[in-house]
Structure formats: structure tokens, C-alpha cells
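Lab notebook, bench 4. The sequencing result for the construct came back, and we need a structural model before the next group meeting so we can plan mutations. Quick request posted to the team channel:

Model the 3D structure of this chain.
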Amino acid sequence: MIYINGRFLTHPMTGVERYAYNICKSLLSMGQTFTIICPKRPILDIYDIHDMNIVRFGHGNSHFWEQCMLPFFFVRKKNYLLLNFTGLGPILIRKKIMTIHDLSFLENSSWHSLPYRLWYKMMTPLAARTSRQLITVSHFSKNEILRFYPSLKKKEITIVYNAADKNIFYRNASEDTSKERFVLAVSSIDPRKNFIRLLEAFTELPNCQLNIVGKANRVFKEQDLQKQNLDNVKFLGKVSDQELVLLYNNAYCFVFPSIYEGFGIPPIEAMACGCPVLAADIPVLHEVCADGAIYFDPLNVQDIRSKIEQFIKIDDCDRKLMIKKGLANAARFSWEVSAKKVLEIINNYIDATK
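Done. Here's the predicted structure in C-alpha cell form:
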């Protein structure tokens, strides 16, 4: 019997929750049966679960529920596999597969709150060692896992990419004639997303509008970006997917200045909507964006500013070429392909335990 850790359904949809939800939807569309186990908390309306088998179990929420309550569900159960798509997983359960999205809390502890980094530094290696297999979201993240945890080199680690939901994020050619030319940035507001340097770049781009979508998360160190009070910068906060699609389609370009990512979903969403992408020159974004993006040094404010200025001045033919490259690159990724990888993992596990 296949079970999925459904703690993510009680959380707002950020990158890891979007990953878990879309993998579940795609597995379901492929005919894979499974049961999602959730805390007895409200499931957020953003998740469509009408055709999913949901079981509410135990008390509490978050990490307490996952580590202390969820294991009791499997008492006296023998033939099962628990899939954990958002990171960690109960260390008392060994018949599980765990997903590690990134190890940013090890790369730079100053990016995260003290409770978050202490918890994940302690629990990640324990949960990984007690898992039958690991999933991660890029070759970069796999290399990071082996760099920080060389003892896991004998553990099977499968790469299952993120993607953009093609039913939501697609190009609407009629939106490509926006009267308001603006640059778009989409991300949670946290230090590794590098918005500080992006805003600094825009202090000398007075005739260029920057719209920032996203909000702060309590697991990250606080940043008061709005105190810079730039007239050409708008903070739009959290928006719906429908609003986000319109922004992607109407933006002149999308900029992603992040210093560290496990994958980076927003550039793929932007490309799928026909929005040209300017991305940080870091290894994982070369893996994800390939030749579909223009790259800049994320630690160099002048280079960020220069690349944006240069792109704004390019002719229409070059911009259309970037759109074409972006659309082709986004097509490399799909939730269906990723779900097939997960299905292979499930079937291999079942065959090995017969």
C-alpha cells in the first residue's frame, strides 16, 4: 500500500508544497492508487483534493505530528511505503522515501532563523539515513547532498525535476502587447533570493518598473526591503496563480537573482508563459534554464543593472528569439514525466520487497 505524507496540504503553497501537490495529481491521473495521511487541520482551499483519498489522523500539526503522531498510523502495518515529497519524514519509519529539495541551511546558516536551521541540521541526516531511498530535484542538489553528507553515497538518490503546470502557466499571445513595460521578480522574500542587490540595481534604473511578487516566510531571516522606498518598485505580495499568469504574460522580462536554489520553479513558469528570463549565473540555474536565459553575476549589482538595461534595449527580433528559446526549455520539464520517475521508484520498491 502506498501512503503519502500529507502535512503539506495544511500549509500555504510555496515551492515544495507545489512539488508535492503536482506529483500527487500526476500520479493520480496515471492510475496510481495511494492514500494521503493528513493532520486533523483544515486543508487549504488552494488544493483541489476532491478525487484524492485523504485520511485524517492523530493530533497536533507540523513537525510534532510528522515525527510523533504519524508513526502510530503504521503500527501493525507491514506492506507499505510512505512517500515524503516536501523534505524530512518521520525518522521512526524506515519504509519511506524522502525528498531533499536543497541544503541552503548548511550552505549559509545566516539565511535562516535559528530554530529552523538547528532542526534541519539535526533531522535531515537522521531522516535520510533511515530512508530506503532519496529523491532530489536537480543534479546540483544531488551533488550538494553528497558534498555535505558523504556517508549517503551508497544511498540511491533519484532526480525528479520540478515543472510548470501546463494547465495554468502558458503563453497568451494577446497579452504580449502590454502598455506598461515592467520587469517581474517572483520569489519568497528571504536573503538567498538576493532582492537586496536587485533593488540596489533599480536605484539607477529610474525609468524601469520592477514588480515583486512574494512575501516573507518566518523560517527566513527578516528583511525589510520596502524601507528603501523606491518609486519604481512595487511589492505585490502573494498573488493567485491566475494573477501570476497575467503578470508573466505582461512582463517585458523576468529576473531571478537568487544566490542558491535546489531547482528554481519561477523561471520555468515565466518561460512557459513566453516571458524572457534573466537569471543568476549559478550552476543550478544553468541546469534548469540552459540556453533559455541571459545570465548575470548575482553578487555584482552593476552586472545585474547592465544586463537588465541591455535587454530592455534589444530589438523585437532578439526578444522573440529569447521567448522561443524559453518556451523550448520549459517544455523539457513536465509533472507527468516527473511522476513517471516516482512511479518507477514505487514499482522498483514493490518488486524488491516481494
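The radius of gyration is 21 Å.
Will bring this to the meeting.
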